[in-house]
Design a protein that fits this description.
The chain is α+β, with helices and mostly antiparallel strands. It has four helices and seven strands. The chain folds into two domains: 55 residues, Multidrug-efflux Transporter Regulator, Chain: A, Domain 2 (Orthogonal Bundle); 52 residues, RNA polymerase II/Efflux pump adaptor protein, barrel-sandwich hybrid domain (OB fold (Dihydrolipoamide Acetyltransferase, E2P), Beta Barrel).
C-alpha cells in the first residue's frame, strides 16, 4: 500500500505540514507510525480525506467543478482584452477576458479571486520518478 509522509500529504493537499499534523491529532485523518516512529498516511485514506474536502467545498451553485482560490499576481490590459494571472497555491492559472469584465471585477495584483474552470479535455500525467512521493 502506498503511504505518504506528513510533508508529502501536506503538499498534495495544498496545506502546511502543521495543518496535516493537527488533522491527524484530531482524528480527522488516519495515520500510522512507521518503524522509525514517523507518522505516515495511507494513500487510500489520503484520497478519501481529499475527496471529503472537495465535497465540503462544493457549493453546488455551478456545473464547473474545478475551482482554485488564489491571489491575482498580474493583470495585463489592452483596449479590448485583459490577461489575468492567479497564483493558487503552487498553481498558475491564466485567464483571458474582456477588459470590461476585468475592470468590473476590479482585478489587480493582490485581489483574492476564484478561477473556475470547466473543460471537456483534461490531461492526466504521472510525475517523473524523481518527484513521486515515496511509499510502500
Amino acid at each position: 500500500m502506498t503511504t505518504f509522509r506528513i510533508s508529502e500529504a501536506a503538499t498534495l493537499l495544498g496545506v502546511s505540514a502543521d495543518t496535516v499534523r493537527r488533522w491527524v491529532d484530531a482524528g480527522r485523518l488516519p495515520a500510522e507510525r512507521d518503524e522509525h516512529g514517523h507518522r505516515r498516511v495511507g494513500g487510500a485514506d489520503l484520497a478519501a480525506f481529499a475527496r471529503s474536502q472537495i465535497d465540503a467545498a462544493d457549493s453546488g451553485r455551478s456545473s464547473a467543478r474545478n475551482r482554485f482560490r488564489g491571489i491575482v499576481t498580474e493583470v495585463i490590459r489592452d483596449e479590448v482584452m485583459a490577461q489575468v494571472e492567479i497564483a493558487a497555491g503552487p498553481f498558475r492559472v491564466v485567464s483571458l477576458m474582456s477588459r470590461q469584465a476585468a475592470d468590473e471585477l476590479r482585478l489587480e495584483p493582490g485581489v483574492v479571486a476564484d478561477a473556475v474552470i470547466k473543460s471537456t479535455n483534461v490531461v492526466v500525467e504521472i510525475p517523473d520518478h524523481s518527484r513521486v512521493p515515496s511509499g510502500h
